[in-house]
Amino acid sequence: MASWQGKTEGQKKRQESGKLIERKKRGEHSFSSQHCLKTEVLGFEVDTVNSVQFSNHTGYAHWKGQVLNSDELHELYEGLKLNKVNQYDYVLTGYTRDTSFLAMVVDIVQELKQQNSNLVYVCDPVMGDKWNGEGSMYVPKDLLPVYRDKVVPVADIITPNQFEAELLTGRKIHTEKDALEVMDMLHAMGPETVVITSSDLQAPLGNDYLIALGSHRKTHADGTNMTQRIRVESPKVDAVFVGTGDLFAAMLLAWTHKHPNNLKVACEKTVSAMQHVLQRTIKSAKAQAGEGNKPNSAHLELRMVQSKKDIENPEIIVKATVL
After folding, report:
1. Which residues of 299-309 are buried (b: 16+ CB within 10 A; e: fewer)?
2. pLDDT at 26
3. Is residue 47 among the annotated active site residues?
4. Catalytic-labelled residue, pool 89, 98, 156, 246
């Protein structure tokens, strides 16, 4: 692992966690304003760059704020370089709406990897989702080729949902076999670890469960591959949350760091922690809304601070199946 800024020589030995630069959207009155919490409580030093700074997340009817452009991102990074504090173990990226900004992210990741060959880049390729069986993009369509041709090839871990995995590969997923083949296609593009965070596939446990699928491929020195594949079935929650993708990617980063060769355990801890957060959130939301009333966006803000212990040490309530 790379040395941490400001550590003594004794502290520069292998750390429990690493230093992370995280580029995320930020809404001041929202879950996203707490986006560092999940990685910091798991032992990471986090430097955050906000790709957008909004009054609140876009799940509300209205929002105000600013969008960071590629020149502004470059200026921020140059400041880190001038002070020689641009030494990182991980990069985590999520939502953005601008192709030039995304291309600048790739340039920065490549530069960081040149100075630390062990740096791990975790990318949540936020582009769209499926609603009632139909998929649609909620970012400009010209981001797709940038993600596909530039971002994914430099990423080590990617966390698309089913629709985003289909966009990146140009292949539809109708069965679990299709999903496994799509993950193989994504491996071939670059990432060692691929997790399809949600899908509309039929869960063996029944209609009340949501399927996520993961694949970790390690290439040995002789050129042979070893692949671990898993399925995770988690209970569906009857509510619409904002920030679950951010939460999943950040916790997967942390737990794959702690369990680098065991995707099963990393995903079990990630999904179990998410279930604790979501269940606490929906319970609180219903109480705030009052009996007989539907919770609104404000009620459904993820209860991150209240879930700190579950993020740090989640009770495993969701088990993964090795495929």
Report:
1. bbbbbbeebee
2. 42
3. no
4. 246
